[in-house]
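Dig into what follows:

_____
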Amino acid sequence: MSKQNAGPTPSVSQANQPGKPNQTEPRGSDFNSIKSQDHPDSNWNQSVSGISQADPFCCRTEWQLSFHEAMEPNRRLIYRETPGSAVVFAEQSGSYPGPLLVPVESNWMFGCPLLGPDAVDLLDDVLGQIESGSTTRRAPPAFVISGLRPRGTPLRQITTKFRSRFNLQSAGSSVLCSASLAGGLDGYLSRRSSSHRRGLQKQARRAAKSGIVFERHAPANKAEAEAIYGRMLAVEASSWKGIGKCGMTIQPSRDYYACMLRRLAVSGNSRVIFACHGKRDIGFIFGGLAGKVYRGQQFSYADDWENASIGNLLQIEQIRWLCEEGATRYDMGPLMDYKRHWTEKRTAIETRILKRS
């Protein structure tokens, strides 16, 4: 494996003031601050399943708020909701003359800040409230919207609703890859090439002969998450990424994944497997579930075990576990060469900038 890797207008919430909720009641629900959304069953997370998302895990709080906490904690977050729908943005400072609202996770742009069937209407409400508070000296706001499918409903709704007032400009695109887990492990393997299957069998036999075993972990509390993360970091430090100081042992990545694993422990939705030789951890693979969709995050292995195919073995062990649990899809993020052997579905996503004409 490669070394790559309906009613009153809804309110706006400022995340750094969770104790001072706006008293304007959102349509059909009580006001919820950003802080109150930081749990697995929040309206934010329930809204992710309300519409088909290209990368559902990366739309959730575990991904988005971990980014905010670890990497951009001083930005103002704007959240608005109706039952089953939400929009969430961060206000980004910079050279743009007016308010620039970006996805909370604004680095990789995998997730979408528009969630659920009412999201585009909520976006219009946010726009109206910001503009009604503007002065003549301040330019209109602009929105960066990521994770949009080129032919998806949200992009079509944005175009229809705002085309008379706004320009919708392209700001980049990406291709995500995933694999169906239909038919369990046998079904998954039937969709791989014969040479790939033979290689995995050979690598598994060699690993068993050398005494490599695999441990499964789904941390269920903070203490368990911290202990598991400590083991992951120790493996990472011994890997080519750790040696090269370009992996998750380096800040802010170290804090980012710690935050994510801690959040996932609340629901028990992280999936971590260690490859062990004797008493030593020689590799790990880590990701999280969004319903029945698994999203891979990181894997690593000790540099002195580079020739033992630890990465491949961890991948197939993770797929085996997911199939046993009834997961339906394995999302592997942006397409890279080594992922072609593991996936068969390609999903294009786009980022657009919405600003006044």
